[in-house]
Every structure is written in structure tokens, then in C-alpha cells.
Amino acid sequence: MKKAALFFDIDGTILSEKTKEIPKSAIEALLAAQKKGHLLFINTGRTMCSIPAQLKQFMFDGYLCGCGTYLTYHDEVLFTRNIDKKRGREILNKMAECNLDGIAEGTEDIYIPERITRFERLETSRRYFHSSGLGRECYLEKDDFIYDKVFIYADERSNLSEFFSFIETDMEAIDRGGNAYEIIQKGYSKGTACDMILKKFGLGLDQAYVFGDSMNDLSMFQYAAHTIAMGNHAKGLEPFTEYVTAEVEKGGIAQAIRHYGLDGRGGQDTK
User: Fold this and answer.
1) What's the pLDDT at 266?
2) I need a surface site. Which of 75, 135, 161, 249 has the fewest CB within 10 A?
3) 118-156 pLDDT tens trace
4) In degrees to the nearest 10, what's the CA dihedral of 55, 58, 60, 62?
């Protein structure tokens, strides 16, 4: 089998949202694929600072972070792109003007409102990031940081249409459900991250395998030849899905790697 590059989303794909761990079966399958010479990359909307410690216990070949805006291969930074500092502040000011709240995500840290907000999901994220030692040094209201993307929260008091009009030239929104939106830099995505890696290593589209479960995985599902949706996946991925595996807790990663023969056990390539 030709050398391949495997790209994994984190939450609900390689990391269980129930146990907050990588299942043993997944680790064994990843090791087997790596032993066969395949490249393994995390491809995530998370910025580098918020990669869970559990993932760093496994030697991935690289991390593709912030929806294609910070890419690494081992210790080498291959690509990085921040939002311009002035533009970044304009976006945050407009967010407040439109009665939205949010979390700015940078390579070095997470920036959370200093005040308690009316959005319970944001406050849940605050507790999570604080427990990881993030979001404590500099708050969203300050003006001395740069960031890569922003996660916003809306309700009936918010003016989403005005905000979306304001950012449409250089940013785009991914609907994450429940009036929450991931605001990413236009022209960069998980799909563009895959493309940069394939070009670096001289690999073709048929050598790319992507694993995901949510709508922020859509760009890499639209890009790659081999697309694997986890058992509990967003319905919007289905038109672009080649193979549906089990949920991560039920051995879904190992099942898919075996299905494609990426662990050297044969399997079948359905493309």
C-alpha cells in the first residue's frame, strides 16, 4: 500500500467526549499505521495552546490548528497566519456592538471576557479553559493580543446579520449549532491544511484519509478522496462521506484503519 497521510479531528473523533481519553484500540491502530510508514496529523479547529495534553502523549507527526492557520510537522512550524491586530480588535468591538459574546483563540492563549456573560455555553468553556490553565493572563477586553479565530455566542438579543455583514470580506462563519458560530479566516480551513501537507510530501488526493464528526470537518471531507465519519456524526457530512465507522468509544478509529488496510492487515479500499 502506498504511503498515506491520515488527518484526525479531535473532539468526538480521536478523543472521546465521554471519557476525555483516546481509546486504547485507537492508540494501537495509530501505532500500527505509523509503523507502516503512514503520516498521522491532528487537524483541528482548536488553536495550538488548547491541544489536550492526552494527545501529546502520542507522537503525531504534526498538528494542523486553528482551521488551517497554524501547521506543524514535528518541531517545524510550516505555516502560520494570525488575524491582523487592528482588524482583530475591530471584529471584537463589532461583536460587542451586535450584542454577541465570544472567545478569541490564539496560538499562545485563549482570551475570554473578564465579566461573567449571559451565555451558559461560554461560561462552561471558561471553566474548561481555566482548568487547563488558559484564559487567565489576558482578557478579551484588553488590547494587547493577537488571535487566529473567534468563537461567538448569540441569542434573541443579538444582531447576527449585521455582524456577519461586517466580517464577510475576510472571515466566514461555521454554524456549530445552538446559536454558536466558529468565525475563521476566509481562505483557510481544515481542507487547505490537508492540501498543504499533501503538497509538502508529494502525496496525491488518493493518499489522504480524513476522520471527523462535525460540520467544521466539512472542508476536509469536501477535499479528500477518503472520508471517514464517526458513528455519531453531523448529517451534513453524509454527502461527502465514503465510510461510516463506529463511535470513537466503540473502536471506530481502529475499525476504519483496519477497513482501509492502513494497519497492514489487508482490509478493503472502497474508492
Assistant:
1) 60
2) 75
3) 999 999 999 999 999 999 999 999 988 999 999 999 999
4) 50
Whole-angstrom distance, CA of residue 241 vs CA of residue 225: 9
What pLDDT, on a 0 to 100 scale, did the predictor assign at position 268? Answer: 55
Cβ atoms of 102 and 119 within 8 Å: the answer is no
Q: What whole-number distance in Å separates Cα of residue 64 and Cα of residue 4?
A: 16
Last residue of a domain, one of 129, 158, 185: 185
Residue that the C-alpha cell 491520515 belongs to: 6
**pLDDT of 96 higher than 80:** yes
At 64, list the grid cell: 494542523
How far is it, in rounded angstroms, from Cα 271 to Cα 269? 6
The total number of structural domains in the chain stands at 2
H/E stretch holding 151 reads: strand 149-153
Q: Are 121 and 178 in contact (CB under 8 A)?
A: yes
Q: What is the pLDDT of residues 246-263, one digit of tens each?
A: 999 999 999 999 999 999
Element (H, E) at 8: strand 5-8
Model pTM score = 0.93
Tell me, yes or no, whether 74 and 195 share the same domain: yes
Q: Can you give the residue range of the structural domain that contains 250?
A: 5-80+188-259
